[in-house]
Specification:
- Keywords: Signal.
- This protein is an alpha+beta fold and 176 residues long.
- Helices cover 27% and strands 32% of the residues.
- Strands 3, 4, 5, 6, 7, 8, 9 and 10 form an 8-stranded mixed sheet that branches. The protein has a two-stranded antiparallel sheet with strand order 1-2.
- It is globular.
- It binds calcium ion (2 copies).
- One calcium ion (CA) binds next to loops.
Length: 176
């Protein structure tokens, strides 16, 4: 009889994806595809980040490279420069500063494209950029062609800015 009850419980828990233990329903934690993929890459330096429903699998390249070389290095790692296009994602990487992210206007001045091919939106500029950036200018009165975006600490203003692509920075790759 005990065995029969046990078998019924096991069957129910498998059918509905939950376990019954001491009368308490325990919801099983499902591992998403990106999390599972990221865990397998942990030994190569990737780390899984999650806050609510926002999930990221990131690799922080500590060796400093210009934007193009950073992009190439991410491609070598079978990923791309990170697309940090929401406040939620930004908050998750807020402490990782002085790094390239996947956003530039190299192809057409003033038209920024994320590494996933999407366009930078005005709301993203408002939410994610240092006030006044992207401005294509190094100094207020001197413009020097800034086409690549990095996350840089600006004291209290810890946001994205556009800077010359030739600068050497650490970089953030993203596995999708
Ligand atoms: Ca520019
Ligand atoms: Ca700028």
């Amino acid at each position: 009889m005990r065995i029969q009850i046990l078998l019924v419980l096991v069957f129910c828990s498998r059918s509905f994806g939950r376990q019954v233990e001491n009368g308490t329903r325990i919801v099983k934690r499902t591992v998403s595809v990106i999390e599972a993929k990221c865990r397998t890459l942990k030994s190569t330096g990737f780390q899984f980040y999650q806050r609510g429903n926002t999930k990221l699998c990131l690799y922080l390249g500590q060796d400093k490279k210009n934007y193009n070389d950073a992009k190439i290095q991410c491609t070598r790692l079978n990923c791309r420069l990170a697309v940090i296009n929401t406040i939620e994602k930004f908050n998750m990487i807020a402490y990782i500063v002085d790094v390239w992210i996947g956003l530039d206007d190299i192809a057409t001045e003033g038209t920024f494209l994320w590494a996933d091919g999407s366009y930078l939106q005005q709301q993203q500029i408002n939410d994610l950029f240092y006030p006044g950036d992207p401005n294509n200018c190094c100094e207020i009165r001197q413009c020097c062609k800034e086409d690549c975006v990095c996350h840089r600490a600006h004291g209290a203003f810890d946001k994205f800015i556009d800077i010359p692509c030739s600068y050497e920075k650490s970089y953030l790759c993203e596995k999708t």
